[in-house]
Specification:
By secondary structure, the protein is mostly helical. It contains 13 helices and no strands. The longest helix has 23 residues. It is globular, with a radius of gyration of 19 Å. 33% of the residues are buried.
């Protein structure tokens, strides 16, 4: 999980016709197969090529947000390619359905299966970040935190996200956006503002930056390390609560009506 907004998942052409249907229930074998296939493409296939291309871009804090967005597009595109072979819709609805089924499987599985699925998902995310931002897997592993430490870090992040000056920056930048005739475009522009403020003001703002205060190091690599920790502990109840409530405050300051955003998203997909 990341506190950043991301662009809508790319559409992927269906390779097995228009009438493919996803599995009604996700089994352990299916879940591990999907994770293994995703790893294959991320480590050796087109996903890897796209991520490597991102790592070759100019390393500049001003380009971190667009590079992060390109990384997410490459990652989600790879996931959708794999899920298409299982009959899932090749859009965010399909990805959402898979994640929902995976969550149900994790909830009902034995502890050892839960741990294997968690570690496998964590390793995929680490591979993605490692390739896109040229950070070694060994360095990523040194920044691991236990759940209690992760909660403390996420509490600091949530507090910084809700500081009055941060909310004011978001509100002013979003108010300055010229509205268009397309609600989805307007919402996307506001999401982009939120993401820019999160990266440049919350995580990498005034010295000492939040990422360095939390022990992840300075600059872009510190940010990447923190995102690894957030993703690994995203399903923890307190972590989800901290970040969820803080994001809601930011989106409110941006003037984003979540119900309207979902309606616009639904209209675009039809």
């Amino acid at each position: 999980m990341s506190t950043e907004s991301s662009s809508s998942p790319p559409q992927v052409a269906k390779p097995f016709g228009q009438h493919a249907t996803p599995p009604a229930v996700l089994t352990e074998e299916m879940a591990f197969g999907i994770q293994d296939s995703t790893k294959l493409f991320i480590r050796h296939g087109l996903g890897m090529q796209r991520l490597k291309n991102i790592s070759n871009e100019s390393v500049d804090s001003k380009t971190l947000v667009p590079r992060w967005q390109m990384m997410m597009e490459a990652f989600i595109g790879t996931q959708l390619h794999v899920l298409a072979g299982m009959g899932y819709p090749t859009d965010e609805k399909g990805l959402g359905l898979y994640n929902q089924q995976l969550g149900m499987l994790m909830h009902n599985a034995k502890p050892d299966i839960q741990e294997r699925l968690r570690v496998s998902g964590r390793d995929i995310w680490r591979d993605v970040l490692s390739k896109a931002f040229d950070v070694s897997l060994e360095d990523i592993a040194t920044k691991e935190l236990g759940v209690v430490e992760a909660r403390n870090v996420m509490h600091k992040v949530a507090e910084k996200m809700q500081q009055p000056e941060i909310l004011e920056i978001v509100a002013k930048k979003c108010a300055a956006i010229e509205p268009t005739d397309n609600p989805s475009t307007d919402i996307a522009q506001k999401h982009n503002v939120v993401q820019e403020v999160l990266v440049n003001e919350v995580y990498l703002g005034k010295e000492p930056t939040l990422v360095s205060e939390c022990g992840f190091g300075k600059g872009e690599k510190g940010y990447v390390f923190m995102q690894c920790v957030m993703a690994e502990h995203q399903n923890d109840t307190l972590v989800a609560q901290y970040i969820g409530s803080a994001m809601m405050r930011l989106l409110q300051s941006a003037g984003i009506d979540m119900a309207a955003a979902q309606r616009a998203q639904t209209a675009d997909s039809q």
